[in-house]
Amino acid sequence: MGSATTQARARVGAVLGDASGIDLAVARELFQAARLLGSTPALAGALADPAAAPAARSQVVSDVFGRVFSANAVQLLTSAATVRWSSEEDFVEGVEELAIRAAAVAEPDVDLEGELFAFARTVAENPELELALGSRFGEASAKGELIEKLLGGRASASTVLVVSSIAQQSADRRIRQALSWAMGIAAAQRGRVVASVVSATALTPAQAERLRQALAAKYGTEISLNTVIDPTIVGGLRVQIADDVIDASISAKLADLRQRLAG
Per its UniProt record, what InterPro entries does this chain match (predicted)? Predict the structure, then answer.
């Protein structure tokens, strides 16, 4: 990611933080815009062209989206189109990120990261589902309909929207990778980071809260805790936050001991 994109994401995120009236309809429109931009290189190129004046790019947003999208969605798209991005691809991804953030804002009481994590686990445990959602040959709309059937009534509206939208977005990425990316964005929008915890047995609420507090103190931010039960680690915990891995599992300690003995 280039420095221009880093600055663009920060500026667009600030605009979203100051905006009012952000609901799921706005998030849905932003996802639709991301899909259109991803499938229309000429449009994405025009809006991401650093040589074009911001006023000209703003006019393109108005001409293309002004009559069909809400004023809030157009305002957010304009904010994204009038800053500089490192590449056209970064711009399209930036609009999709904006949509995910809008979904998180729209339903602040929903555990969006947790529900995305739960669906990611479902995908990991069902290779046929992962293949269906990740195939480049499947119709985007069919993927969206499949998500609606799987999650409708079982997850929040914001989760259904985010999962169905990222499954439809034409990008060279795996669905689990995309879900993990979305989890991180949703957590960041709420001032948290995601911690994935592998435990041999389920943590009690008290244990989970103590772990959350310890990680929050270590990393200096709020923590969204996602737990996976894996008896093969025998005991202890394995925690991953971004690229940091804290492996205090018994299986890891045994493996280390075997390696030292073989040494």
Answer: ATPase_OSCP/dsu
